[in-house]
Amino acid sequence: MKQRTLFLGLVIAGSLALTGCTAGGTAANTPSSDTGVGGTPAQGGTVFVLQNADFSHLDPAQGFDGGVNNFYRLIYRTLTTQGAGEGAEGTEIVPDLAVSLGEHNEDATVWTYTLKDDIFFEDGTPITSKDVKFGVERSLDPSISIGSPYAKIVLDIPEGYEGYYTSGPLDSIETPDDKTIVFHLNQPYADFDAVVGQAPFTPFPADAGVTATSIDQQPIASGPYRVTEYERGSTLVLERNEHWDADTDEVRTAAPDSFEWTFGLDGATIDERMIAGQGDDRNAIAGSVQASSIARIQTPEIQARTVQGLQGCTTYMAMNTTKPGMDNPLVRQAINVAMDKQAVKDATGGSQLADIATTILPPTVVGRQDFDLYGTDDQTGDPAKAKEMLAEAGYPDGFSFVLDIRNQPKMQAQAEAVQQALAKAGITVEFNLIDTSTYYEVIGTLSQQHDAAITGWCPDWPTGATFLPPLFEGSQIFEKGNSNIAQLNDPAVNERMAEIRLMTDVDEANAAWGALDEQIMELAPQVPMLYEKTVMVLGSNIAGAYSHAGFSGGTDYVSIGLKSVE
């Protein structure tokens, strides 16, 4: 049986008006996509990328955010991947190294894939099923297993298995021949085609001496580009992988000859260079502009090279339910009531760069329900009511906690808005600043977590199945690579998640995830704050650019190039 996986109902705002939009109750309420920038790329040339921080990891077993997953597609391939294109076209799961989507047994617990012909690593070695198996096995090593968690969650893994380097091969992944790979799961999982498109399913040569640390220093490419120069925190250069065969790849256009990243630039410098668009910056792309630059990009010339979109994510403050005080639901509810979300929105850039969030699930997730359990007038918070709740919880003189934040201007502005809002309710917030490149790794390590953290989550495919379990299921609390920052382990929530996974009706399951959102928010393990947007100014010679719904609204690397090659 073959299953076609399509992210139904997901539409991204490829050209949102700068006045912003109102988040609706379901995916059907989100704005529709429009055309990107620049037409069809020419072959050749170099695309320059200006970036504030380096990627978290070059090893796909370790990186796990929209930006690095977008980058991985340039150098790595997986059995499946997300499509290339705007809106739903970009979030359809399509074959990549596999000839088709998977074939599965009746209850979707055994999945079989067949590899294409003429697929190679950067040294010309053919990619086999054993290489795919090895890539998954090494990703389960506890020392590097901090990336996408789905392999750990759904594969049939024996208790005590610690990855290839410690425990050896995994029996639940079979390779009957060089072209066939069979996965045995521990549960029915209808979305497994999306799972094998996750970065930990990247193949690596099983017999090439790959270690737990070597890939992070020197990747082995299976995609159209290979890393030829890398100075962490400074520069990264990709050049063509001559052994990549375009005939085997329906997703990547690979028009440029090379890509060159510059890291460590502050946001103001990046905006200034992109707006001016001089020299090599005509051939450059960057992330979303800062709030202070919005007014400067309203001219027709700059608007013509601006791409905008919803990130499809929720920015929130997670509260560690294992910490004193935060282990009391009434305290967490009081913090929700005290939060001035309008101030956080203003600190982010106002309606042009964010909408206020009231639910965990963002508007792009199918089945999302619209509710607001802790709403206040104009979303500015109710400190008086919050004080009453804190007194009832046993904190009549207030409450204090430490907040983990990124050492980045926008995130610090958000944190300061949180600090000022909660101070009105007698809540003292102290900051713990963490480097942007290592932020997710630090807050995902239980021993390094503090009382709360400002972070965000984007669906790996837009259903509640990739949003609520990673954030709130007790079985998904890991010592390292933990995304359940709240460390919520509520029996009723865990039981409901298990029930939803057994639902065979997709619409019923999607509705159930939407309802579970409200059930979880009654426990208040987080404060949903914003649904953020991206506004990206591109170089005037960039072609084929659009906001990709699957990568936090960023410019899709695999489709861009130059209008003309000089």
UniProtKB/TrEMBL annotation:
Residues 1-23 form the signal peptide. GO terms for cellular component: ATP-binding cassette (ABC) transporter complex; periplasmic space. One of its GO terms (biological process) is peptide transport. The keyword Signal applies. It comes from Agromyces intestinalis. This is ABC transporter substrate-binding protein. SUPFAM superfamilies: Periplasmic binding protein-like II. Residues 92-476 form the Solute-binding protein family domain. InterPro entries: Peptide/Ni-bd, SBP_5, SBP_5_dom. Keywords: Signal. GO terms for molecular function: peptide transmembrane transporter activity.
